[in-house]
Amino acid sequence: MSRRLPPAVRVLDQALQLTNAQQRLQLLQKALAGGQGELPGVDMDSLSATCGQFIDDMEDQEVGHRVQGLCPIRLSICTE
After folding, report:
1. How far apart are CA 80 and CA 47, in angstroms?
2. Can you tell me the distance from the alpha carbon of 40 to that of 11, in angstroms, rounded to the nearest whole number?
């Protein structure tokens, strides 16, 4: 089922599974470089927009623990 999700959503889902910031950064770099194996390639604009939309949606739903995981990811994207 996850293969039907847009690539940027799949990348963010995989990134949120990682607890180590360095591992998340490496995963994002691989995805931005074209992907690898089960990790799809994504472009910066779609990844950034998807991350921002996730954060907005979760803030609306008051899902704080997931927002805390996405904020460092969005920061990593913005500093690339």
Report:
1. 12
2. 7
Nearest CA to 8 among 56, 39, 63?
39
Please return the burial class of 50, using the count of CB atoms within 10 Å of its CB with bins 0-12, 13-18 and 19+: buried
Q: How many domains does one find in the chain?
A: 1
Secondary structure (3-state) at 80: coil
Tens-place pLDDT, residues 22-74:
999 899 999 999 999 999 999 999 998 998 888 787 766 765 555 556 666 66
DSSP 8-state class, residue 3: G
pTM over 0.85: no
Domain of 53 in residue numbering reads as 2-78
